[in-house]
């Protein structure tokens, strides 16, 4: 599949579901859709004109053609698997529409998209969560518990929309500002609340938020800060999961002065959270030197040679870490990991990690040589996944390769706390969490 238009990657789910303006992301009760493709909505003609000139004119005809290929489908006898199979087929076709296809609204009960309804019929959104739609032929309700979770997604989506408008950033990074002087194991913390209020430096909010990182008082500025802490877990989940894995595989982690970590299949989530890797320095007081290698097909190429970055990049650390002579060096290498281990830049790590690799579902042929090597690598490898069926498939592959485990697959204590809507799940409105499952393959 071709990479999607980069402009689509930062569009909030609410905009893809036509609940907010697709261009400015404002909430409006007077949204109007593109008359041709009917896939995006705008709050004003000005926004529509601006989006047309910047983005939409490149994809509108493709969306119209996709609508025309579908055509009317009766609601009777239609099941979720029919919708799912259609989605999978569209994913397989090369396109640059990405998330516009993944999150296209469909009827919650008959699973038809608007282009598959009777002539002139439209989908109506649930007025509570804004993320569920109904066609005129079906009930206009869905379970209240599910709706409440989707409302949480909508709330956090609006937080990210506000952040994007004010700062131009698409993710929140919230971690410890002041390095710890004494080591306190991450495993001693029960959850993110414990991490923020006991291990990190947010103890002043102990009585102002609950264990689900929901604000308990009425101060708007404090509420915004707590919301940022909650949404920030979707970024910092990477670093805390790494620390938890290091504690599981290195008994004397509290005395280590240097660490070498490889991030396999590195993509947007890992690369956008680079600054948060300083949390390893902040929570591991003895650590002086952290070496990171980002390896993957989506790593940005170095224009000087097209494949690898030969010179290490040094991450700018905070003033306290810099004063102590602590450093983080980063090497990026574009290509599969099994090719990287044969390059001149390879150095065996203390830990390798692959976040949301999906190797049992997507691109199995590309991943298999890497997985085959890691099954018997001289160092442990951390893996995470969002869904159980991914874990189930991965365990089958590891079993066939004779792999053993330091930690069996289980729910990750340091999963992200801000839920998101699955693009094409096992059921309608499937909710996922970043790095929900984790396990560690044992070294040989």
Instruction: List the secondary-structure elements in sequence, H or E.
Output: HEEHHHHEEHHHEHHEEHEHEHEHEEEE
Rg is 23 Å
Number of strands: 14
Structural class of the secondary elements?
A: alpha/beta
* End-to-end separation: 35 Å
* Global geometry: globular
Order of strands in the sheet with the most strands? Answer: 7-8-6-5-9-10-14-11
Number of helices: 14
Low-confidence stretches: 1-8, 302-308
Biggest sheet layout: 8 strands, mixed
Mean pLDDT: 89
Helix content: 25-40%
**Proportion of strand residues:** 5-15%
What features would you describe in this structure?
With 444 residues, the protein is of the alpha/beta class. 33% of the residues lie in helices and 13% in strands. Strand 1 (32-33) and strand 2 form a beta hairpin. It is globular and about 70 Å long. The relative contact order is 0.10. Residues 1-8 and 302-308 have low confidence and may be disordered.
